[in-house]
Design a protein that fits this description.
Elements: H1 6-25, E1 27-28, E2 34-37, E3 60-63, E4 69-71, E5 76-83, H2 95-98, E6 101-107, E7 111-121, E8 128-129, E9 134-138, E10 149-156, E11 160-162
Antiparallel strand pairs: 1-2, 2-3, 3-10, 4-9, 5-6, 5-8, 6-7, 7-9, 7-10, 10-11
The chain binds zinc ion.
Length: 191
C-alpha cells in the first residue's frame, strides 16, 4: 500500500490475523481464560455453528470443561438461584428461562454477577459467599447451544448489563492476595 511503511502494514496484518483467529477458535486474553463469545458479540459459542444472536451478548462465555469449578468473582450474597437442568433451545429475555442451573451474586456498590449453564450449584439463596468460593460445576444447562461453557454477566442495579471486562481487573483468583477494590472482579473460572 502506497504511503504506508511496511512495518506498520505488517503490524496491521498481524492484528487482523489475530482478530480472525479469535473469531474462528476463541480468544485467549493475555493472562485470563479462553473466551468463546465475548460481551457484545453477535456470534454464539458453538464454533461449528456460529449463528447470529438475536441481540448483542450480555456477558462473556468462558471455555471450561464439564464439572470445572465456577468461582465467585467477588464477595457477596446469593440473591437469585436458577434450577433448570436440561438444555433449552429457545432463547427469551428472562434470565431464569435461558440460564439453566445458575445463580446471581449481589455485591457491594449495587452490582451483581451472574453465572449460568452449570451442571450443579453449590450455593443457596441468601448464602454469603467469599471471593473465589465455589459456586458450582460447569455444564451446559439452559440455552447453551449444547456447548459446555460458563456464561458470566455483570449487572448494575437489577438489570443493566455491563461489559464484564471493565470489572475483570483483579486477574486470576489467588487466595493469598488481598483485594481492596470491591468492584475489581477475579475470573470466575480457574486460570
Ligand atoms: Zn453467554
Amino acid at each position: 500500500m502506497k504511503g504506508i511503511p511496511s512495518g506498520l502494514q505488517k503490524h496491521r496484518v498481524l492484528i487482523f490475523s489475530m482478530a480472525v483467529a479469535c473469531l474462528v477458535s476463541g480468544c485467549a486474553t493475555a493472562v485470563g481464560p479462553t473466551i468463546l463469545s465475548d460481551y457484545g458479540a453477535l456470534y454464539g459459542v458453538n464454533p461449528a455453528n456460529r449463528t447470529q444472536r438475536p441481540a448483542p451478548h450480555e456477558g462473556i462465555d468462558f471455555d471450561v470443561a464439564g464439572g470445572d469449578p465456577i468461582l465467585a468473582a467477588a464477595p457477596g450474597e446469593v440473591s437469585e438461584v436458577f434450577g433448570t437442568a436440561g438444555v433449552v433451545d429457545v432463547y427469551t429475555d428472562e434470565i431464569q428461562r435461558w440460564c439453566g442451573i445458575g445463580t446471581r451474586v449481589r455485591h457491594a456498590a449495587d452490582f451483581s454477577t451472574l453465572y449460568c449453564h452449570l451442571s450443579s450449584r453449590a450455593v443457596q439463596l441468601g448464602d454469603q459467599v467469599a471471593r473465589g468460593q465455589l459456586i458450582g460445576g460447569a455444564g451446559r444447562s439452559g440455552t447453551s447451544a449444547y456447548v459446555v461453557h460458563l456464561h458470566f454477566g455483570v449487572y448494575e442495579g437489577c438489570c443493566r448489563d455491563m461489559n464484564p471486562h471493565r470489572f475483570l481487573t483483579a486477574g486470576c483468583f489467588d487466595p493469598g492476595r488481598a483485594y481492596p477494590d470491591p468492584k475489581a472482579l477475579t475470573y470466575p473460572v480457574r486460570c
